[in-house]
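Same chain as my last thread, 292 residues:
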Amino acid sequence: MTQAQAAMQPYHVPTPPGVIVKRVLTYIALILLTVVVIMPVFFLVMASLRLESQWMQYPIVILPKEPQWSNYVKAVDPQYNFFKLVGNTLQISLPATVLTVASSALSGYAFARLHSPGKRALFILVLSMMMVPGMVTIIPNFMLFSKIGLTDTYWPWYLWGISGSAFHIFLFRQFFSTISRDLEDAATVDGCGRFRTFWQIFLPLSGPVIATSAIFHFQWTWGSWFVPNIFLSANKTTLGVAVSRYYVNPNGQPIYTLQMAATVLYILPMLIIFLFAQKHIVQGIATTGLKG
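reply #2:
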């Protein structure tokens, strides 16, 4: 190799030993954290594949020698109304998600772009609602909807959706604050009103935060147990409530293997959605922190 060729070769700077050790420790910590997160799901799946007689067996059977895949077939048997319960849950989750995202986007746009007296104080009040636990407001909500005859219906979720969510309003407000004002000024010059500017300029640019808000709210509604258990009767209840209520034998004793199988089917859609949408979730959360 000539001297000129040697000079053209890329120069590799050796990685300091301290950096290598730091990376190795980081990877080990991430692997251990992943194992901690995955283990409960692993044990749930293994428990759903046991025989019912193995549930109380000692020593505990972790890996069944003959996995009982038929437990999943039994879990969706018509006697348990599995698919009807899925339909009930979707009747709550889908409309509530659409309404919440739409109303929160409008509120976030107003807080980010409109100017009015007391806007800052009102935004602080909205953020303060994030600090109030849901358990504190559930009884007043139940009393209110009971007075107007909306218990045992899905209307409470729809009305909550119309009123928006403090968390989603915050996400949209932060995201809309990062959009250049030049776009808004250009739309105003072209004769766009406030709503048309929001609809044609801001909303098409807010794909990541829309996806993040929709995924989060759908997961929260789909996974809710306490609120449907209070507001809905057995005929209209959701799958999350029914898993612990319906899978029992004639003596009223829980059929644990079927409960576990139904639980796996219950959380499976959420796992799939998260795996395919995690890029949008990370992007949506990251972009909302660019401007305060």
